[in-house]
Amino acid sequence: MNDLVDTIMNIEVFLFIGVLVWLYFKPVNKDNDSSD
Amino acid sequence: MAVDADNKSPATGNAAISTPPRSGFSSPLLIVALAITSAIAIWGLVDTAGLAEQAAFLVQIQFTNRAWFIMLAVSFILIVCIWLALSRYGSIRLGRDDDLPEFSTVSWLAMLFAAGMGVGLLFWGTAEPLTHFDLFRQYSTPGQAAGQALFVTNFHWGLHAWAIYALTGLVIAYFGFRRGCPSLIGAPVLDTFGHNRVTATVSWLSNLLAIVAIAIGVGGSIAMGVFQVKDGLDTLFGLSESGAALTTAVFVVLCLSYFPALVVDLSSGMARLSNAAMAVAGTLMIFVLIAGHTHYIMGGLVQALGEYFGNVLVHGFRTLTFMDQPIGDWFQSWTLTYMVWWIAWAPFVGVFIARISRGRTIREFIVGVILGPTLFSMLWFGIFGGAGFSHVLGGETGIMEVVRGNVSAVTFYLLERFPLSLVTISLVIIAAFLFIVTSVVSAAFVLGMFSSNGDLNPSVKIKLSWGVILGALGAVMILSGDIAAIKSIIALGSLPFVFVVLLLVVCLLKTLKTEIRTEA
């Protein structure tokens, strides 16, 4: 159980770091604002 | 610290983020934030032990599995700050290019000190180094343990803590003064990535997490302050069995003191009270230096300065993974807890330091915010910790018994060993009380602002609602009865905000890169 929690929590962190890196390099097109 | 409510117009507005402001009680953010914090407060009031136990359990899971991430994140934040100050981005001004700083450098630095000089320093000045010493001396000689204890105390209150504040404040100041965004934690997300469903949700969640983190963090400070004032009164009047009655009385007086300030606009008065508390604390520090073994304290202080600046960056990456259980537990309940505590306070302190820093360059901002208060904290702990060590290493064991039994009484025990103790103990009580009142009033203002779409003049009703919630959260922490439980509850409330701070760093770096490219 502990190992599973460890795995899930750290995979979340790895994914988050990955998203941050992707966001930093991703070109932004602010004209593409969609309405909500 | 105190935040005033003067309104500043945007500088070079990219006002893409103009969600129609819905302030008052119609704001969904306010309703959800009040619901969450009220639920925590009610749970704590009904079943204090249950909340404390659950918080400790969840925090331990987080700390065990993500210690590496928290330490990496805070070290990354510090390194980003240093890099920004040294890079070409350092000359970008927080405001229009022709804006000049609103305050002189000296008064700006004084206000930064005031922001950092919360009740925590009064509380932990002697208690923290001696608590660490109690553990470390089992692993080394007393002399080495004292040096180590002072080093880690400085680490907890030093560059990493202020880098977290600085970067959050920098994001608020840059996006607010230079890009014309509202003073909301989530606003940079919309400004950087545009307005769509995903960014709007992330921005909204960031605001919510900031509010929860601030409310719980300030609740913890209320409890710490109340414990300290109560123990001070115990010492002053020789009370040994005052117990819950005096704690309740102090808490009631505190609530009676801050509620009127939420109704009437006392922002400038609050700033003066905060400065007065800081002046009192500064006077106490000089008194302890002069009245104590000055050469001993100065010796320890100089050594601590060298050891700190020589090792601070490396220490930031230490996770103590290979150490035994007592050290691992200590690391979780001190170093990791402190780091998330600073993160809990970051949106609150960040707003304050951003508001006083308009017109400064990024370089000036970072150097001032990070170095100034860090040096002041090191002086504080060097003097109060050094005075404590001069007793302990001189063979007096009484103070260690107080450290083990009741940390909030340590400062008073120390001051009793100095001349004029009646005056100095009274001053600590007054300063602690002033710090809590000004913190609660400022927090209610910032929470009101965040929960009413960045409205710089939140309504009295909203501020009062937050005043009640903060008081209730403070009561919960007081009922929990011990500092360890308070730390767990704060850590639980602030841990999710770690992710928000890192997202804000990406927003800042990306927008700065674009600004420089556009100018080129």
Structure characterization notes:
The complex is a heterodimer of chains A (36) and B (520). Chain A has 36 residues and is mostly helical. Helix content of chain A is 67%, strand content 0%. Chain A has one helix and no strands. The longest helix of chain A has 24 residues, at 2-25. Residues 32-36 of chain A have low confidence and may be disordered. Chain B is mainly alpha-helical and 520 residues long. In chain B, 78% of the residues lie in helices and 0% in strands. Chain B contains 19 helices and no strands. Chain B has helices spanning 28-46, 48-86, 105-116, 119-124, 127-136, 142-157, 159-178, 187-193, 197-237, 243-263, 267-291, 294-315, 325-355, 362-392, 398-405, 410-416, 421-451, 460-480, 483-519. The longest helix of chain B has 41 residues, at 197-237. The two termini of chain B are 40 Å apart. Residues 1-21 of chain B have low confidence and may be disordered. Classes of the chains: A mainly alpha (36), B mainly alpha (520). Chain A binds chain B through residues 5-6, 9-10, 13, 16, 20, 23-24, 28-34, 36, and chain B through 16, 61-62, 64-66, 69, 192-197, 200, 499, 502-503, 506, 509-510, 514.
Count every helix of chain B, treating DSSP H or I runs of 4 or more residues as helices. Answer: 19
Instruction: Give the N-terminus to C-terminus distance of chain A in angstroms.
Output: 40 Å
- Identify the overall geometry of chain A: rod-shaped
Helix-strand pattern of chain A: H
How many distinct beta strands of chain B? Answer: 0
Based on CA atoms alone, the radius of gyration of chain A comes out at 16 Å
What's the rounded overall pLDDT mean of chain B? 84
Chain pair sharing the greatest interface: A-B, 17 and 21 residues
Could you tell me the number of beta strands of chain A? 0
**Averaged pLDDT of chain A:** 80
Tally of alpha and pi helices of chain A: 1
The N- to C-terminal Cα distance of chain B equals 40 Å
Shape category of chain B: globular
Please give the largest β-sheet of chain A: none
Show unreliable segments of chain A. 32-36
Helix content of chain B: over 70%
Helix and strand sequence of chain B = HHHHHHHHHHHHHHHHHHH
